[in-house]
Amino acid sequence: MTDHRFEVEVPVRYRDLDTYGHVNNANYATFLEEGRIAYFEEVLELGQQSRGMILASLSIEFHEPVEADAVTVGLAITRIGSSSFDFAYEIAVDGRRVATAESVQIAYDVDAGESIPFPDEWRATIEDFEGESVAE
């Protein structure tokens, strides 16, 4: 269980482990990506192939090693700007926080190769789901 309204369980695969039997630090970014994809699919009802956003930055703080079969990724959109938006994340194992993270995404038109204004319908859906205003 995390502190966020949206959560998804992500299995830990054998290939995610390092020689010490811990989840390798690089795989945390994949757990967060799986959380983002699930959020986009379930909250915004966007397919996994949605090309409307790109990752601009990602910061992860590791609290303790993971030796488990699955992790819970909790996440929330905490800020929406004119074209960018922020996620806050928590990764937990059996209710224990093992990592926290933040990322910035940009609403993006791949064909034009440029950022676009954050869609009003996405903003309304997110604010309804999160239960608060997430505007800048």
Question: What's the arrangement of secondary structure elements?
Answer:
Blueprint: E1 6-11, H1 27-42, E2 53-62, E3 70-80, E4 84-93, E5 96-109, E6 114-115, H2 120-130
Antiparallel strand pairs: 1-3, 2-5, 3-4, 4-5, 5-6
What would you note in describing this structure?
This protein is of the alpha+beta class. It has a single domain, classed as Roll (Thiol Ester Dehydrase, Chain A). The chain is 20% helix and 39% strand. It has 2 helices and 6 strands. A hairpin with a 3-residue loop joins strand 3 and strand 4. 22% of the residues are buried.
Briefly, what CATH class?
A: Alpha Beta
Helical segment count: 2
Q: How big is the Rg? A: 15 Å
> Cα distance, first to last residue?
28 Å
Low-confidence stretches: none
Q: In terms of quaternary structure, what is this?
A: single chain
How many β-strand stretches? 6
Main sheet characteristics: 6 strands, antiparallel
Structural class: alpha+beta
% residues in beta strands: 35-45%
Mean of residue pLDDT? 91
**CATH topological fold name:** Thiol Ester Dehydrase, Chain A
**Integer tally of domains:** 1
| Strand and helix order | EHEEEEEH
CATH superfamily: Hotdog Thioesterase
Q: Which word captures the global form?
A: globular
The helical percent reads: 10-25%
